[in-house]
Write a structure and sequence with these properties.
The chain has 95 residues and is α+β, with helices and mostly antiparallel strands. It is built from two helices and four strands; from the N terminus they run βαβββα. Helix content is 27%, strand content 24%. A four-stranded mixed β-sheet has the order 1-2-3-4, with helices on one face.
Length: 95
């Protein structure tokens, strides 16, 4: 999610308010390689949707929080929250 419309300007990591990675088999790579790269590039907040453990890992300046089913995200984007029970509902049905 970008901070504002960029017009013809090519976006960079610093223009990104929030990056979301959906991780199943790539969880280790996303934590160890992508997350630090996003943070170095200036992304304020990174969410890793940890599919195997049905968790959301939220990393920002204060640190990392791990949210579980039943939790709701704090809005990284004004007015936007995610209900983790709803996010993972289809995955549980497929198991």
């Amino acid at each position: 999610m970008l901070r504002e419309p960029l017009g013809r300007h090519k976006p960079t990591a610093a223009d990104c308010l929030l990056a979301i990675e959906v991780s199943d088999s790539s969880l280790r790579f996303d934590r160890e390689r992508k997350l630090p790269a996003y943070r170095r590039g200036g992304v304020d907040e990174v969410w890793i949707v940890n599919v195997p453990d049905r968790q959301l890992e939220v990393t920002n300046a204060p640190g990392t929080r791990v949210l579980q089913r039943g939790d709701r995200t704090a809005p990284a984007v004004e007015g936007v929250t995610v209900d983790l029970a709803v996010l993972f509902a289809d995955l549980d049905d497929a198991s």
